[in-house]
Amino acid sequence: MKRQGGFSLLVVMALGIVMSCVLLTFFKVVPVYSEYYAIKKTVDELAATSGKSDDELRRAFANRMPIQDIVSVKPADLLILATPGATGVGVRYRREVPLAGNVGLVFSFEHQAGAPVLTANN
Questions:
Q1: Are the C-beta atoms of residues 87 and 50 closer than 8 Å to each other?
Q2: Gap between the Cα atoms of 49 and 80, Å rounded
Q3: Are residues 80 and 107 in contact, defined by beta-carbon separation less than 8 angstroms?
Q4: 121 pairs with which residues across the strands?
Q5: Per-residue pLDDT tens digits for 33-85
Q6: Which of 58, 64, 66, 82 has the fewest CB atoms within 10 Å, i.e. is most exposed?
């Protein structure tokens, strides 16, 4: 008689738990990075426009927020350097994502485009 081999029920359950944890983390992290790339694209587009004031750039960002589904950054969070020769737009923010109970992830993002506006102090 041949001895049967394979996974036991305990191993299958353990694999299921591990895979569900990995999938939960994946589905919580993907929207955070999706929003970061939307913010990055918007900041790049704002920095490419020249001759606009701080208020005009903030208003343009506020108009794009619902379209790009941006919720982590408000127009007041933008650091803007608008001079006649160059425009610089930067943003630095943190996003907290709860996983389960009191366990969560914290993401810190930073992006600038155009003239340098972000320093270590702001």
A1: yes
A2: 12
A3: no
A4: none
A5: 999 999 999 999 999 887 888 899 999 999 999 999 999 999 999 999 887 77
A6: 66
